[in-house]
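Hi there,

I know you've been waiting on this one. I reran it after we fixed the sequence typo, so this is the corrected version. Both the input and the resulting structure follow.
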Amino acid sequence: MNTFKRKSLAATLSLAVSLGLGSLLSTSVQAVEDLEKEDLKFGFIKLTDMAPLAIAYEKGFFEDEGLYVTLEAQANWKVLLDRVIDGELDGAHMLAGQPLGATIGFGTQADVITAFSMDLNGNGITVSNDVWDEMKKHIPLDADGRPQHPISAAALKPVIEQYRAAGKPFNMGMVFPVSTHNYELRYWLAAGGINPGYYAPARGDTSGQINADALLSVTPPPQMPATMEAGTINGYCVGEPWNQQAVFKGIGVPVITDYEIWRNNPEKVFGVSQTWADENPNTHIAVVKALIRAAAWLDADNNANRAEAVQILSQPAYVGADAEVIANSMTGTFEYEKGDKREVPDFNVFFRYNATYPFYSDAIWYLTQMRRWGQIGTAQPDSWYMDVAKKVYRPDIYAQAAQELIAEGKLPADAFPNFATETGFKAPTSEFIDGVTYDGTQPNAYLQQFAIGLKGDEQL
Protein backbone atom coordinates (compact mmCIF):
# COMPACT_ATOMS: atom_id res chain seq x y z
CA MET A 1 0.00 0.00 0.00
CA ASN A 2 2.78 2.43 0.87
CA THR A 3 4.63 1.62 -2.36
CA PHE A 4 1.48 2.24 -4.39
CA LYS A 5 0.89 5.58 -2.76
CA ARG A 6 4.49 6.64 -3.27
CA LYS A 7 4.38 5.73 -6.95
CA SER A 8 1.07 7.54 -7.33
CA LEU A 9 2.54 10.67 -5.77
CA ALA A 10 5.54 10.54 -8.08
CA ALA A 11 3.29 10.11 -11.11
CA THR A 12 1.11 13.03 -10.02
CA LEU A 13 4.10 15.31 -9.61
CA SER A 14 5.45 14.25 -12.98
CA LEU A 15 2.12 15.06 -14.60
CA ALA A 16 2.01 18.42 -12.83
CA VAL A 17 5.42 19.34 -14.20
CA SER A 18 4.36 18.37 -17.74
CA LEU A 19 1.30 20.60 -17.38
CA GLY A 20 3.42 23.60 -16.45
CA LEU A 21 2.68 23.45 -12.71
CA GLY A 22 6.22 22.50 -11.74
CA SER A 23 7.04 25.76 -9.97
CA LEU A 24 4.02 25.42 -7.70
CA LEU A 25 4.85 21.86 -6.74
CA SER A 26 8.66 22.05 -6.79
CA THR A 27 8.78 22.29 -3.02
CA SER A 28 6.78 19.05 -2.72
CA VAL A 29 9.06 17.32 -5.23
CA GLN A 30 12.11 18.44 -3.27
CA ALA A 31 10.54 17.34 0.00
CA VAL A 32 9.92 13.84 -1.37
CA GLU A 33 13.33 13.48 -3.03
CA ASP A 34 15.54 14.99 -0.32
CA LEU A 35 14.29 13.19 2.76
CA GLU A 36 17.13 11.85 4.87
CA LYS A 37 14.86 9.20 6.40
CA GLU A 38 11.49 7.96 5.20
CA ASP A 39 10.53 5.20 7.63
CA LEU A 40 9.84 6.70 11.04
CA LYS A 41 8.54 5.52 14.41
CA PHE A 42 6.78 8.02 16.69
CA GLY A 43 5.68 7.44 20.27
CA PHE A 44 2.64 8.71 22.12
CA ILE A 45 0.68 8.30 25.35
CA LYS A 46 -2.99 7.29 25.17
CA LEU A 47 -4.55 10.72 25.48
CA THR A 48 -6.87 12.57 23.11
CA ASP A 49 -4.28 15.27 22.49
CA MET A 50 -2.14 12.80 20.55
CA ALA A 51 -4.78 13.39 17.83
CA PRO A 52 -2.52 15.27 15.35
CA LEU A 53 -0.34 12.16 15.05
CA ALA A 54 -3.32 9.85 14.51
CA ILE A 55 -4.92 12.18 11.99
CA ALA A 56 -1.68 12.78 10.06
CA TYR A 57 -1.43 9.00 9.75
CA GLU A 58 -5.06 8.17 9.01
CA LYS A 59 -5.61 11.01 6.55
CA GLY A 60 -2.42 10.33 4.60
CA PHE A 61 -0.69 13.60 5.45
CA PHE A 62 2.52 11.79 6.39
CA GLU A 63 2.50 9.87 3.12
CA ASP A 64 1.85 13.09 1.19
CA GLU A 65 5.26 14.15 2.46
CA GLY A 66 6.87 10.84 1.49
CA LEU A 67 6.95 9.60 5.08
CA TYR A 68 6.01 6.11 6.22
CA VAL A 69 5.23 6.34 9.90
CA THR A 70 4.58 3.80 12.62
CA LEU A 71 2.78 5.11 15.70
CA GLU A 72 3.46 3.27 18.94
CA ALA A 73 1.83 3.77 22.34
CA GLN A 74 4.35 4.05 25.21
CA ALA A 75 4.07 2.81 28.78
CA ASN A 76 4.72 6.17 30.43
CA TRP A 77 6.32 9.56 29.85
CA LYS A 78 9.76 8.54 31.13
CA VAL A 79 9.99 5.54 28.81
CA LEU A 80 8.83 7.72 25.94
CA LEU A 81 11.49 10.38 26.60
CA ASP A 82 14.27 7.83 27.07
CA ARG A 83 13.40 6.14 23.77
CA VAL A 84 13.51 9.44 21.89
CA ILE A 85 16.90 10.25 23.44
CA ASP A 86 18.43 6.86 22.63
CA GLY A 87 17.03 6.84 19.08
CA GLU A 88 14.53 4.00 19.41
CA LEU A 89 11.86 6.57 18.53
CA ASP A 90 12.34 9.26 15.91
CA GLY A 91 10.08 11.64 17.82
CA ALA A 92 7.11 11.71 20.12
CA HIS A 93 4.04 13.38 21.57
CA MET A 94 5.59 15.00 24.66
CA LEU A 95 4.72 17.03 27.69
CA ALA A 96 5.69 20.64 27.01
CA GLY A 97 8.03 20.54 29.99
CA GLN A 98 9.93 17.44 28.85
CA PRO A 99 12.25 19.02 26.25
CA LEU A 100 12.86 21.92 28.65
CA GLY A 101 13.46 19.72 31.68
CA ALA A 102 15.86 17.47 29.78
CA THR A 103 17.79 20.42 28.34
CA ILE A 104 18.36 22.03 31.75
CA GLY A 105 19.16 18.66 33.30
CA PHE A 106 16.21 18.14 35.64
CA GLY A 107 15.90 14.37 35.76
CA THR A 108 17.33 13.25 32.42
CA GLN A 109 20.06 15.36 30.78
CA ALA A 110 19.73 15.55 27.00
CA ASP A 111 19.21 18.07 24.21
CA VAL A 112 15.61 17.76 23.04
CA ILE A 113 13.82 20.33 20.87
CA THR A 114 10.34 21.06 19.57
CA ALA A 115 9.19 22.84 16.43
CA PHE A 116 5.50 22.04 16.84
CA SER A 117 3.00 22.66 19.64
CA MET A 118 0.32 19.96 19.53
CA ASP A 119 -2.60 21.67 21.26
CA LEU A 120 -4.02 24.12 23.76
CA ASN A 121 -5.98 23.21 26.90
CA GLY A 122 -7.31 19.66 27.27
CA ASN A 123 -6.70 18.86 30.97
CA GLY A 124 -8.89 18.79 34.04
CA ILE A 125 -8.70 18.28 37.80
CA THR A 126 -10.90 15.56 39.27
CA VAL A 127 -11.62 14.70 42.91
CA SER A 128 -13.23 11.65 44.47
CA ASN A 129 -16.93 11.65 45.32
CA ASP A 130 -16.18 11.90 49.04
CA VAL A 131 -13.95 14.93 48.55
CA TRP A 132 -16.51 16.54 46.25
CA ASP A 133 -19.28 16.10 48.81
CA GLU A 134 -17.20 18.09 51.30
CA MET A 135 -16.05 20.70 48.76
CA LYS A 136 -19.63 21.46 47.72
CA LYS A 137 -20.33 22.88 51.17
CA HIS A 138 -17.93 25.73 50.34
CA ILE A 139 -18.96 26.46 46.72
CA PRO A 140 -21.61 29.09 45.91
CA LEU A 141 -24.44 28.09 43.57
CA ASP A 142 -25.75 29.69 40.41
CA ALA A 143 -29.42 30.66 40.08
CA ASP A 144 -30.10 27.25 38.52
CA GLY A 145 -28.66 25.49 41.58
CA ARG A 146 -25.47 24.33 39.92
CA PRO A 147 -22.01 25.10 41.39
CA GLN A 148 -20.52 28.38 40.22
CA HIS A 149 -17.53 27.95 37.92
CA PRO A 150 -14.61 28.29 37.91
CA ILE A 151 -14.22 26.50 41.23
CA SER A 152 -11.40 27.81 43.40
CA ALA A 153 -9.12 25.48 45.32
CA ALA A 154 -10.14 27.57 48.34
CA ALA A 155 -13.12 25.19 48.51
CA LEU A 156 -10.68 22.28 48.85
CA LYS A 157 -8.62 23.89 51.63
CA PRO A 158 -11.02 23.03 54.51
CA VAL A 159 -11.24 19.47 53.23
CA ILE A 160 -7.46 19.12 53.39
CA GLU A 161 -7.54 20.59 56.88
CA GLN A 162 -10.05 17.90 57.89
CA TYR A 163 -7.69 15.23 56.60
CA ARG A 164 -4.80 16.76 58.52
CA ALA A 165 -6.84 16.92 61.73
CA ALA A 166 -7.63 13.23 61.32
CA GLY A 167 -3.93 12.43 60.79
CA LYS A 168 -4.44 11.45 57.16
CA PRO A 169 -2.41 12.71 54.17
CA PHE A 170 -4.24 14.28 51.23
CA ASN A 171 -2.83 12.70 48.07
CA MET A 172 -3.26 13.84 44.48
CA GLY A 173 -1.96 12.38 41.24
CA MET A 174 -0.31 14.08 38.28
CA VAL A 175 1.40 12.48 35.34
CA PHE A 176 5.08 13.54 35.52
CA PRO A 177 7.28 16.00 37.45
CA VAL A 178 7.74 18.29 34.42
CA SER A 179 4.20 17.82 33.10
CA THR A 180 1.77 20.59 32.37
CA HIS A 181 -0.56 18.73 34.74
CA ASN A 182 1.88 19.09 37.63
CA TYR A 183 2.23 22.85 37.07
CA GLU A 184 -1.50 23.42 36.46
CA LEU A 185 -2.45 21.47 39.57
CA ARG A 186 0.14 23.36 41.61
CA TYR A 187 -1.04 26.68 40.17
CA TRP A 188 -4.66 25.95 41.06
CA LEU A 189 -3.85 24.75 44.57
CA ALA A 190 -1.57 27.72 45.34
CA ALA A 191 -4.15 30.18 43.99
CA GLY A 192 -6.53 28.76 46.62
CA GLY A 193 -3.99 29.10 49.44
CA ILE A 194 -2.82 25.45 49.42
CA ASN A 195 0.94 24.80 49.31
CA PRO A 196 1.62 21.95 46.84
CA GLY A 197 5.21 21.49 48.06
CA TYR A 198 8.72 22.04 46.75
CA TYR A 199 11.50 20.14 45.02
CA ALA A 200 15.09 20.38 46.22
CA PRO A 201 17.25 18.45 43.72
CA ALA A 202 20.48 19.87 45.15
CA ARG A 203 19.56 18.16 48.43
CA GLY A 204 18.60 14.96 46.65
CA ASP A 205 14.87 15.50 47.26
CA THR A 206 12.91 15.14 44.04
CA SER A 207 9.61 14.22 45.70
CA GLY A 208 8.16 17.72 45.29
CA GLN A 209 6.51 17.34 48.70
CA ILE A 210 8.62 19.58 50.95
CA ASN A 211 6.30 21.74 53.12
CA ALA A 212 3.30 20.41 51.18
CA ASP A 213 -0.34 20.70 52.28
CA ALA A 214 -1.35 18.33 49.46
CA LEU A 215 1.02 15.52 48.47
CA LEU A 216 1.41 15.25 44.70
CA SER A 217 2.84 12.12 43.10
CA VAL A 218 3.12 10.54 39.66
CA THR A 219 0.38 8.26 38.32
CA PRO A 220 0.21 7.17 34.62
CA PRO A 221 -2.84 8.76 32.91
CA PRO A 222 -4.83 5.60 32.08
CA GLN A 223 -4.45 4.42 35.69
CA MET A 224 -5.79 7.62 37.28
CA PRO A 225 -9.47 6.60 37.68
CA ALA A 226 -8.70 3.15 39.11
CA THR A 227 -6.05 4.55 41.47
CA MET A 228 -8.54 7.08 42.82
CA GLU A 229 -11.30 4.49 43.07
CA ALA A 230 -8.94 2.34 45.17
CA GLY A 231 -8.43 5.27 47.54
CA THR A 232 -4.68 5.63 46.89
CA ILE A 233 -5.21 9.19 45.69
CA ASN A 234 -8.00 11.64 46.52
CA GLY A 235 -7.91 13.45 43.18
CA TYR A 236 -5.79 14.04 40.11
CA CYS A 237 -4.91 16.29 37.20
CA VAL A 238 -4.86 14.58 33.82
CA GLY A 239 -5.77 14.94 30.16
CA GLU A 240 -8.77 13.42 28.47
CA PRO A 241 -10.47 11.04 28.43
CA TRP A 242 -9.51 10.21 32.01
CA ASN A 243 -11.48 13.00 33.73
CA GLN A 244 -14.63 12.13 31.84
CA GLN A 245 -13.99 8.46 32.55
CA ALA A 246 -14.42 9.22 36.27
CA VAL A 247 -17.83 10.76 35.52
CA PHE A 248 -18.95 7.81 33.43
CA LYS A 249 -17.80 5.35 36.09
CA GLY A 250 -19.46 7.40 38.84
CA ILE A 251 -16.30 7.52 40.96
CA GLY A 252 -15.40 11.21 40.88
CA VAL A 253 -16.14 14.75 39.76
CA PRO A 254 -14.00 17.00 37.55
CA VAL A 255 -14.00 20.37 39.33
CA ILE A 256 -12.10 22.56 36.88
CA THR A 257 -10.50 22.47 33.43
CA ASP A 258 -7.11 23.93 32.63
CA TYR A 259 -8.90 26.34 30.29
CA GLU A 260 -10.33 27.89 33.47
CA ILE A 261 -6.93 27.89 35.20
CA TRP A 262 -5.11 29.54 32.27
CA ARG A 263 -7.16 30.27 29.18
CA ASN A 264 -5.68 28.72 26.03
CA ASN A 265 -2.63 27.36 27.76
CA PRO A 266 -0.11 25.36 25.70
CA GLU A 267 -0.23 21.65 26.38
CA LYS A 268 1.74 18.95 24.49
CA VAL A 269 4.54 19.35 21.93
CA PHE A 270 6.13 17.12 19.31
CA GLY A 271 9.69 16.50 20.48
CA VAL A 272 12.81 15.13 18.79
CA SER A 273 16.40 14.90 19.93
CA GLN A 274 18.73 17.66 18.78
CA THR A 275 20.93 14.98 17.18
CA TRP A 276 17.99 13.62 15.17
CA ALA A 277 17.02 17.13 14.05
CA ASP A 278 20.60 17.86 12.94
CA GLU A 279 20.80 14.62 10.98
CA ASN A 280 17.33 14.86 9.39
CA PRO A 281 16.51 18.53 8.69
CA ASN A 282 14.38 17.91 5.58
CA THR A 283 12.57 14.99 7.20
CA HIS A 284 11.87 17.15 10.25
CA ILE A 285 10.26 19.85 8.11
CA ALA A 286 8.16 17.22 6.32
CA VAL A 287 6.94 15.85 9.65
CA VAL A 288 5.97 19.32 10.88
CA LYS A 289 4.11 19.98 7.62
CA ALA A 290 2.05 16.82 8.05
CA LEU A 291 1.28 17.64 11.69
CA ILE A 292 0.24 21.20 10.83
CA ARG A 293 -2.21 19.86 8.24
CA ALA A 294 -3.59 17.37 10.76
CA ALA A 295 -4.11 20.08 13.36
CA ALA A 296 -5.86 22.28 10.80
CA TRP A 297 -8.15 19.36 9.86
CA LEU A 298 -9.07 18.84 13.51
CA ASP A 299 -10.25 22.44 13.94
CA ALA A 300 -11.60 23.01 10.42
CA ASP A 301 -15.12 24.36 9.88
CA ASN A 302 -15.81 24.98 13.56
CA ASN A 303 -14.74 21.50 14.63
CA ALA A 304 -16.85 19.77 11.98
CA ASN A 305 -14.39 16.85 11.80
CA ARG A 306 -14.36 16.11 15.53
CA ALA A 307 -16.98 13.34 15.39
CA GLU A 308 -14.82 11.46 12.88
CA ALA A 309 -11.73 12.17 14.99
CA VAL A 310 -13.47 10.67 18.03
CA GLN A 311 -14.08 7.42 16.16
CA ILE A 312 -10.45 7.28 15.09
CA LEU A 313 -9.13 7.98 18.58
CA SER A 314 -11.40 5.38 20.17
CA GLN A 315 -9.54 2.63 18.31
CA PRO A 316 -7.42 0.44 20.65
CA ALA A 317 -4.23 1.44 18.81
CA TYR A 318 -4.71 5.10 19.79
CA VAL A 319 -6.60 6.09 22.96
CA GLY A 320 -8.75 2.99 23.25
CA ALA A 321 -11.52 4.55 25.36
CA ASP A 322 -15.21 4.44 24.47
CA ALA A 323 -16.11 6.94 21.78
CA GLU A 324 -18.86 8.31 24.01
CA VAL A 325 -16.31 9.15 26.71
CA ILE A 326 -13.92 10.81 24.27
CA ALA A 327 -16.74 12.78 22.63
CA ASN A 328 -17.79 14.23 25.98
CA SER A 329 -14.91 16.72 25.79
CA MET A 330 -13.60 16.43 22.23
CA THR A 331 -16.79 17.80 20.65
CA GLY A 332 -17.06 21.06 22.58
CA THR A 333 -18.65 20.10 25.89
CA PHE A 334 -17.35 19.01 29.27
CA GLU A 335 -19.24 17.17 32.00
CA TYR A 336 -18.47 18.11 35.60
CA GLU A 337 -20.76 16.61 38.22
CA LYS A 338 -22.79 13.84 36.56
CA GLY A 339 -25.48 15.49 34.45
CA ASP A 340 -23.81 18.92 34.67
CA LYS A 341 -22.60 19.13 31.07
CA ARG A 342 -21.50 22.59 29.97
CA GLU A 343 -20.39 24.14 26.71
CA VAL A 344 -16.58 24.42 26.56
CA PRO A 345 -15.93 24.86 22.82
CA ASP A 346 -12.21 25.48 23.34
CA PHE A 347 -11.55 22.60 25.70
CA ASN A 348 -9.48 20.99 22.93
CA VAL A 349 -7.81 23.39 20.49
CA PHE A 350 -5.42 22.04 17.88
CA PHE A 351 -4.93 24.83 15.34
CA ARG A 352 -6.85 28.06 15.96
CA TYR A 353 -5.25 30.82 18.03
CA ASN A 354 -1.91 29.82 16.46
CA ALA A 355 -1.97 26.73 18.67
CA THR A 356 0.70 24.91 16.67
CA TYR A 357 3.31 27.70 16.80
CA PRO A 358 6.12 27.10 19.34
CA PHE A 359 6.12 30.43 21.21
CA TYR A 360 9.15 31.31 23.33
CA SER A 361 6.77 32.79 25.91
CA ASP A 362 5.15 29.36 26.36
CA ALA A 363 8.54 27.80 27.06
CA ILE A 364 9.42 30.53 29.53
CA TRP A 365 6.16 30.06 31.47
CA TYR A 366 7.06 26.42 32.09
CA LEU A 367 10.55 27.44 33.17
CA THR A 368 9.07 29.94 35.64
CA GLN A 369 7.02 27.14 37.19
CA MET A 370 10.11 24.94 37.45
CA ARG A 371 11.77 27.78 39.34
CA ARG A 372 8.68 28.51 41.44
CA TRP A 373 8.55 24.96 42.79
CA GLY A 374 12.29 24.38 43.18
CA GLN A 375 13.08 22.22 40.15
CA ILE A 376 15.36 25.11 39.19
CA GLY A 377 17.02 25.49 42.57
CA THR A 378 18.68 28.89 42.27
CA ALA A 379 17.87 32.29 40.83
CA GLN A 380 18.53 32.84 37.13
CA PRO A 381 18.55 36.12 35.19
CA ASP A 382 15.83 36.83 32.65
CA SER A 383 18.40 36.30 29.88
CA TRP A 384 18.87 32.68 30.98
CA TYR A 385 15.17 31.94 30.49
CA MET A 386 15.35 33.41 27.00
CA ASP A 387 18.46 31.44 26.09
CA VAL A 388 16.89 28.14 27.16
CA ALA A 389 13.66 28.92 25.31
CA LYS A 390 15.54 29.66 22.10
CA LYS A 391 17.57 26.48 22.40
CA VAL A 392 14.54 24.24 22.85
CA TYR A 393 11.66 25.91 20.99
CA ARG A 394 12.30 26.24 17.24
CA PRO A 395 9.85 28.55 15.49
CA ASP A 396 12.36 28.86 12.62
CA ILE A 397 11.75 25.23 11.65
CA TYR A 398 8.01 25.69 12.07
CA ALA A 399 8.03 28.78 9.84
CA GLN A 400 9.84 26.94 7.06
CA ALA A 401 7.30 24.12 7.15
CA ALA A 402 4.37 26.56 7.19
CA GLN A 403 5.77 28.60 4.31
CA GLU A 404 6.09 25.45 2.21
CA LEU A 405 2.44 24.61 2.91
CA ILE A 406 1.44 28.14 1.91
CA ALA A 407 3.47 27.91 -1.32
CA GLU A 408 1.85 24.57 -2.12
CA GLY A 409 -1.62 26.03 -1.62
CA LYS A 410 -2.44 23.61 1.20
CA LEU A 411 -3.11 26.31 3.80
CA PRO A 412 -3.59 30.09 3.51
CA ALA A 413 -1.02 32.55 4.84
CA ASP A 414 -3.56 34.09 7.21
CA ALA A 415 -3.80 30.76 9.06
CA PHE A 416 -0.36 31.47 10.53
CA PRO A 417 1.43 34.26 12.39
CA ASN A 418 3.07 36.94 10.27
CA PHE A 419 6.52 35.38 10.12
CA ALA A 420 8.12 38.67 9.08
CA THR A 421 7.12 40.36 12.35
CA GLU A 422 6.49 37.52 14.83
CA THR A 423 8.74 37.78 17.89
CA GLY A 424 7.80 34.50 19.53
CA PHE A 425 6.20 36.27 22.50
CA LYS A 426 2.48 36.41 23.09
CA ALA A 427 1.07 39.63 24.50
CA PRO A 428 0.97 39.79 28.32
CA THR A 429 -2.13 38.06 29.67
CA SER A 430 -4.08 38.04 32.94
CA GLU A 431 -6.39 35.20 31.89
CA PHE A 432 -5.45 33.05 34.88
CA ILE A 433 -7.74 31.93 37.69
CA ASP A 434 -5.95 34.29 40.11
CA GLY A 435 -5.76 37.24 37.69
CA VAL A 436 -1.96 37.46 37.87
CA THR A 437 -0.44 38.97 34.71
CA TYR A 438 2.14 36.93 32.81
CA ASP A 439 4.67 38.70 30.57
CA GLY A 440 7.12 36.23 29.07
CA THR A 441 9.78 38.89 28.65
CA GLN A 442 9.96 39.43 32.45
CA PRO A 443 10.03 36.00 34.13
CA ASN A 444 11.53 37.14 37.43
CA ALA A 445 9.06 39.98 37.84
CA TYR A 446 6.29 37.47 37.16
CA LEU A 447 7.48 35.17 39.93
CA GLN A 448 7.56 38.05 42.42
CA GLN A 449 3.76 38.30 42.21
CA PHE A 450 3.05 34.95 43.93
CA ALA A 451 2.53 34.55 47.67
CA ILE A 452 3.37 30.83 47.48
CA GLY A 453 6.49 29.78 45.59
CA LEU A 454 10.19 30.53 45.32
CA LYS A 455 11.26 33.89 43.94
CA GLY A 456 14.35 36.08 43.75
CA ASP A 457 17.31 34.48 45.53
CA GLU A 458 15.19 32.10 47.64
CA GLN A 459 16.26 28.50 47.72
CA LEU A 460 15.66 25.39 49.80
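Quick highlight: The two ends are 58 Å apart (CA to CA).

Best,
R. S.
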